[in-house]
Amino acid sequence: MDLANFFIQLLNSVQYGLLLFLLAAGLTLIFGIMGVVNLAHGSFYMLGAYMAYALTGAWDNLALAILAGTLISISLGWLLEKLLFRHFYHRSHLDQVLLTFGLIYIFEELRSMLWGDDVHSVGVPAVLDWSIQLTDTLSYPAYRLFMLAICTALALGLWLLISKTKLGMRIRAGAFNSDMAQTLGINIVRLHSLVFAMGVALAALAGMLIAPLSSVYPHMGSQVLIMCFVVVVIGGIGSVRGALTAALLVGLVDTFGKVLLPQFASMLVYVLMALVLLYKPEGLFKQ
Amino acid sequence: MSAPQGHLETLPRSVQVLLGLGLIALLAFPLAGQDFYTQMVTRMMILAIFAMSLDLLQGITGLVSLGHAAFFGVAGYVLAFLSPADAGASWLTSLPLAVLASALLALVIGFFVVRTQGIYFIMVTMAFAQMVYFLFFDNKALGGSDGLYVNVRPAALGLDFENKQVLYFFTLACLVLTYAFLRRLLWSPFGRTLNGIRLNEHRTQALGYASFSYKLTAFTLAGALAGLAGYLWAAQSGYVNPELMGFHMSAHAIMMVILGGMGNVAGALIGAFGFELFLHFFKDLPKVGEFDLGKHWQLWMGSLIVLVVVVAPQGLMGMLRPRRSQDD
Amino acid sequence: MTEPLLKASSLSKRFGGLLAVNGVSLSLFKDQLHAVIGPNGAGKTTLTHLLSGDIPATSGELWLKGQAVTGWPHHRLSLHGLGRSYQKTNVFLPLTVWENLMLAAQAKDALVPYNPLSWFSRADRNLNVLERAERALELSGLVASKSKTAAILSHGIQRQLEIAMVLATVPDVLLLDEPLAGMGAAEAETMVALLKALKKDHAMLLVEHDMDAVFALADVLTVMVNGTVIASGTPEEIRSDAKVQAAYLGEATP
Amino acid sequence: MANRRQLLTSTAAIAGAACSGVWFPALAQNSKLRIGLMLPYTGTFTQLGVAIDNGFRMALQEAGGKVGGREVEFFKVDDESEPSKGVENANKLVQRDKVDVLIGTVHSGVQMGIHKVARETGVLNIIPNAGMHAATRALCAPNVFRTSFTNGQPTQALGKVMVEKGHKKAVWITWKYAAGDEAGESFKESYVAAGGTIVKELGLPFPNVEFQALLTEIASIKPDAVACFFSGGGAAKFIRDYAAAGLKGKIPLYGSGFLTEGLLDDELAPSAQGIMTTLHYSASLATKRNDAFRLAYAKTYKMQPDVFAVQGYDAGLLLLQGAKAVNGDLSNKKALYAAMESAVIDSPRGKWTMSKAHNPVQDMYLRVVEGKENKVLGVAAKALSDSGVGCKLG
Known about the structure:
Largest interface: B-D, 49 and 45 residues
Number of helices of chain B: 12
Number of helices of chain C: 10
Order of helices and strands of chain C: EEEHEEHEHHHHEHEHEEHH
Largest sheet of chain B: 2 strands, antiparallel
Low-confidence stretches of chain C: none
Radius of gyration of chain B: 20 Å
Oligomer: heterotetramer
CATH class of the largest domain in chain C: Alpha Beta
CATH topology of the largest domain in chain C: Rossmann fold
Distance between the termini of chain C: 35 Å
CATH class of chain B: Mainly Alpha
Radius of gyration of chain C: 19 Å
Distance between the termini of chain B: 18 Å
Low-confidence stretches of chain B: 324-328
Number of domains of chain C: 2
Strand content of chain C: 15-25%
Strand content of chain B: under 5%
Shape of chain C: globular
Strand order of the largest sheet of chain C: 6-7-8-3-9-10
Mean pLDDT of chain B: 89
Helix content of chain B: 55-70%
Structural class of chain B: mainly alpha
Shape of chain B: globular
Structural class of chain C: alpha/beta
């Protein structure tokens, strides 16, 4: 592996890491900050991807589709929080596991009834449909560079929101001690619906943004689910900075694992997770 | 489940009667049932043993393992490895070896995972189970992604598992023994201490109990019992594959235990039978006019699970237990 | 004086920048109650945690019944006769009083967990465990609420249960962290009587704010301020010690 | 299942249903032929399951809905592509519904479960897709026939083609699981035999679809060509990433036909132009038989058939021929199997016959993606038969 190749692989690992952060961002809110074990996170990601496919099919404009899709997923998140999740904040993690496992079944079937079971692809918007020549044989798709920018912006935005803004402070207070936050005049009920809706929207947004890169197919959510939990847990539950660091770390291990240690590639990420949890039982950046 | 249940060892009358009747039904069942249903009920009993083994961890010790299927699958693979191509291995030797293999694996993994707490325990058990899953999935020598056959089912002491009735009653005996052992455990000093660890680990240590070795023992014991269930599954189906130790199987076990109602082992038993019966029921729903109900079994199953967790926080067992006033 | 049951020398605990306990040395002797007083944040509770092994000391040594026990984990010290109660009630709330006591009483000669005998024997049929639990029940005056669930007991009775559970482990050394906190006058009175009775054949350390109880019970008094011992001696010596008065009892009394 | 009355009634109900379900094969002649369909109706391979189901039913409809002169009754089981339930679901059809023939399935892991039951109960099993080698090699059985392919068959034809096109140094890439390994084995055999050398074999964990790292490796190795095995969503993504990485123009991509089969929609086609694959079928196969089949299928099901529909259709044709030879009495196993072994299937993919190990001996077509079609360039391998090594049949 010569130097140029190494740097390209490094770029690949950073790009995959940021992609993983985008995927796990919604989970850092719902699972990380609100403490709800949300196994249905993968289903929201899948719904986002299918919405991108359906809406670009109708309007042939990804940006518009993403806008509409985000609004739809925010209302879906808000509705789910109101109907179901509101009653589960003080329930044990096991109840949340059971609830969200049931939701996986429901969303998988709704997707099959609404959009069928075929494999689809979503077009890259024309303005981004070009590549930069890296080496004589390899070029780098602009859409992935665009994704690099989007994910970095999202990471920065989420970190700023959570740790620097008043709303962020209220969210953290609510998560840390919701009863105390309530007595200080924070409307916890509205805050929880807002944060939950944001979490669902982020998961769906990830689905819509990544759709042009990944194709759209049944059960795509379940393949992503475990990796999102790995990222959030390694980073330290509730820490946005932790999730970003962990995502980059997993991106590194996965990318170079495939190239250098192919026969152990599939186990490396889990070895990393076990090592982190045994060395720092609360993750890298425990609050 | 919201407020931790204190009394695990006492079972309400209605549940005891239900279990008694259930046992009689299971004893009589093979005489009436056709081969397929005998095998179906055998499978339910195997899953019940698996669920009870997880309940020892989840309901009694308060350790939620999302990787319990690793020990279930490994025992099945041990039987596959020990089975010669054209003859049945003797279960007299292969069963203990399989259970021992699962116990050893549980001891090794337990030594690492038992020191973590809460959510991190859930996640680290999942990580180790995925490692075991990929170890078998990626290695041709261990059967690879398509798995291995148990060519001829084990037999010993005149009990040949090729005969469905024999395996049915052998599994029933294992079910009853496992249930009795775990129920008895609840009354033992070991069981009481595990219960204490679940309710308040810090004070349990303050009283003089080395909670680490208690939790490790419970984890190993649960791994061994899961191995028993995994061995029987492999003996019954004759085919083992990596999915037996996959994430889905571990989540399935957690579902059965929560659905049934945690802690007193009977909940896990009822949860296992209930979960499987509902699964079969929804899948065999007929075609009503143009709308094939059976095809959308995932919708009905998902809705049922959500309904149970919203309506019955204590699981199915909660519904059987009369609303007890606090100071019983 | 005979060998101290519990001896600590220059125990310290640093939390990052804060030196919560700074080089504290003290000894507890049989049939003697050693009270530790001081303003809030003086490090009294942290000291009890260092002695009981709840938290590891940054430096310093510990001897229990003549044996060096520095760095021993919490449960091992407890098994060797060092019982402790907690400032914030720390019992098994969903269990009844009797079940709490049985679990405490069972610890003394519990088999190792991986010994199958401990899986099969009946916990509630072990005679000396029953006897220990019964004794603790009577001593702490909880016979009336024996089968009540701990969660629904009044705060005072829960504090009594806290002490009863320590007694059920039949310790030689007793560390009591504000046993009278939040108790009504009557309950406090019975508790002081109980503690006085316990002084016989136990070495006791009492952390308490209730000065009447302290001066009624203490054989030796130690005053801590900001993590260090500023004075130690008989109650009379402490009462007249200038340093104590300046730091703790407000203006010097005439 | 909440209370004891409900648990007991349902257990009794099952027992009762079981007794009434008892049925005597002796009355086979006039009663309906029981056909079991065990296919993925949910999960990642649903699209394939539905295509096979459609193709199979269409074959029977075209023959007047009768098999060997007998009315037909269908029994469906959703196998969810879940290997751990393979044996259980197969037994549901064989032991509970007492089917005469079991058509199934797609996923190799589930096929292992079916194969176990087929070998133990002797039920006639026609495999419409799963390409696992064992079923028609070491573990072949007289009552098991396959109308699709062995995992290695398509790539067996690929080696010679690539060498003929002047690609002496190639990279092989696929998922590390059974189907990928088996496809890789036979590609290596054929490619090396034809004089090519495999510069590197790349593999990634199944079902990981993050190809970027390995595409970078390929770009740095600069082989003459790349050969691969991918299918479904992963295949679509591989094509997009391969094109997006600029490799499309520079390093020609070859693969087993499943890389492009049924995936060439408006979004993906541009990235797939020029990809050459070998498969035993193509939608643009210009034969009257194929056109008639495609027209009938489009009319009946309002969608375009793919190779999986053809494999389901051929399963129907095979069953029809076998049953006709024993005029419906499937219990006459010897004559039935003899007829099926010697059957000549007039399939939309072209006529094919059954090998000794009960796997199709069929032409492998070389196809290239032009527009939204896999245009047929010619026959890459004439009447290609799987080695069937280790099979003691015939």
